[in-house]
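Known limitations

Structure tokens in this collection are predictions and should be treated as such. Users comparing against experimental data should check residue numbering before alignment. To illustrate the layout, the record for Acyl-CoA dehydrogenase/oxidase C-terminal domain-containing protein is reproduced below. The input appears on top and the generated tokens appear beneath it.
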Amino acid sequence: MTMSVSDLLLEQVTRLHASDQTSRREDFDSALWTKIEELGLPLAMCPEPDGGFALRWSDLFDVITHSAACGEPTPLGETLIANALLCGGGAEPAASAVFFSAWAADVPETARLLVTRGEAPALVTFSDPAGAVAGNTPTTVSTVRYAGALLRSIQIAGALQGALDLSVRYAQERVQFGRPLAKFQAIQHMLAQLANEAVATAAAARIACAKMDAGDGDLAIAIAKLRAGRAVEKGAMLAHQIHGAIGVTMEYPLGRLTRNMWRWAEEFGDQREWAIAIGRTAVATGDAWDAVIAASDPVEVAGDE
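Generated tokens:
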């Protein structure tokens, strides 16, 4: 069976993140980023004339979630989206790393930061956010906000899956009172709840990706971001309850996953903001219930098999 470009990229990214140390890094992984650049991933959503693969949100869903499940030691998602926005606005993309917020340490000098100047986003040098604009595009701030919210929803889905995988493994390996934690009904119940949050978040984010690819993703993105924020509240708590004290130690990867989740839940609009956006959008259609249901239904995008 012939593999698609997105499948091939996922296979390559999975190999890059194979080391268990990946999810334990708190700083920017420059060696990993160099390998990501060699794969051509930063430009994957750009048109072929700009050096990309013209991939859609749906095509890269698994790549972004896998990276998030591994602790997100590089801004792969941010760079993908920033370059897609630049190409969409007629500006020239670049393979160097792009960040949406100044959280990382030890970033390379070529790294860039996405900022807003008036009504348009711009790229500036990471080390000098007030410096000269390195790229410009007529894309509006609203477009950046929705793209950022969708990215964070996808990443939260990935981090929740990563937390679930860690929790299942820990519950199977950790022995208490002579038997694995996974044998206790209370732990089984918590694992089931955590799995529910991870699956529901991923489903909402996948639908939003399909809607975005089809050109009508605003309401679906708002729903996905709200669902993701609510999942973080419950999912992070459950994962840490299952792990007990080990979950907050620096040498264990769960802490990084949940810190990322909490940060992503607040970025590009928190639960309150997106709940208000959903209400306003749905009411404006004249039939709020049908609008929300329609935005939550899966869609087929041209090119899907």
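For this record: The two ends are 13 Å apart (CA to CA). Residues 132-138, 301-305 have pLDDT under 50 and may be disordered. Please report discrepancies through the issue tracker.
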